[in-house]
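Anyone able to model this chain together with S-adenosylmethionine?
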Amino acid sequence: MTTKNVRAHAYDILERVRDGAYSHLLVNDVIEKQRLSAEDAGLLTELVYGVLKQRPALDFYMTPFLKQKPSALDRRIQTILQLSLYQMAFLDRIPNRAAIHEGVNLAKANGRKGLSGMVNGVLRNADRKGLPDPETIQDEWRRKEVQTGHPVWLLQLWANMFGKETAFEAAYCNLKKAPVTLRTNTLQQSREALQEILNEEGVATSFGKLAPEALITASGQPAKTEAFASGRFSIQDEASMLCARALDPKPGMQVLDACAAPGGKALHLMEWMQDEGFVTASDLHATKLPLIHEQAERLGLTSFALLPRDARQLSNDFAEGAFDRVLVDAPCSGLGVIRRKPEIKAYPDSSHLKEFPPLQEEILHEAAKLVKPGGRLVYSTCTLNSEENEAVVKKFLHEAPGWKLEEDLAEKLGLQADAKKRTMAGAVTILPQDAGSDGFFIASLFKE
Ligand SMILES: C[S@@+](CC[C@H](N)C(=O)[O-])C[C@H]1O[C@@H](n2cnc3c(N)ncnc32)[C@H](O)[C@@H]1O
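re: yes, here you go
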């Protein structure tokens, strides 16, 4: 495949993401179906994620060379300019003239022949006169929007929660590449033994900082190893590994994962319990459940059942107090996983965030009914939004008598003071800058 074709694929993906598709699924799909070489796959990933991460900067760069605002451009032309400017501003290995030439060709190929002259003019001007410097932006929020690629509404949301400096730090961190983190299947070997096995297969790793079962990939392709095929590990973010630790189910227990797909935590819970006991992995979307079955087979795990259910109606299936442990890893806005899914920050304002708390509250109440007296309920999200995290838990505690937060959660998880200080007692908030994991929230509840 030529670099030119890789750009055309990147453009198609970016346009489809603007229509609501998920970048990581499309990128993986093109890499697989087109059988891209490692080099082409790297370039495609870089172009798609780079543009999605840096959109505010790319629009800022094109502005001096346009007659209208970037948002008023023909949408396809805006995407083509973003893609070309990304190569010019961020990729040293691509000469500007190649980026310009291919940008013009993309405009022609996508039915924008009449506008290809405009693309040519903007890009040539940018090349000749140089790109504007974000440091010259007077307003601090707008400047940070351009520098971090995060919209002002999101920076302000985080500044209200964590303070301005911490919020900016999280946003800068999201510009980095997310690590590929591996969860040792401790039923097969220790983390140290897995590290050696992977080393022999050409995958170098270091120990994770948050979870004792985590390895961080330094080089190589872990998903292509024999060790992966034979179930020695899974790929899972490190912060999300802490859910099993927080829930801490013992072998032989009855456990419910109420929002289980695609299954990372449910499978971890089975490993945690030595595959003894029973994990009911339930999810609203039946189509997502077979993947859990497939992964369980790979990992050699058998102690589970899959259940396609709306978590708001689980008490139709189970008696009150049927489970020793219940995990609610709730559907959320995903503001902690922006590095992996940068389109998450593309909303023009925060109004879409309002849809989540009512659903989260309902699921939490229903799940709580199913916990045995003396049992434990863990509520987690991969978002950094107090309305979906602390506020949901506080409202639940207010409405559900007898429930309390486990105040020593941060200590139990072995976390630094920061994770605890940022939120209420009995919960932790992990930011991407803490240990390189995703942003994550966990609260652990028990009923007296
Ligand atoms: C954050 S993801 C769960 C990730 C999963 N725990 C893991 O570790 O792989 C949230 C899940 O909730 C599911 N979901 C959304 N609404 C739901 C509902 N009303 N009842 C049950 N599951 C729901 C989604 O399908 C999604 O798979």
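The domain at 3-132 is CATH 1.10.940.10 (N-utilizing Substance Protein B Homolog; Chain A).
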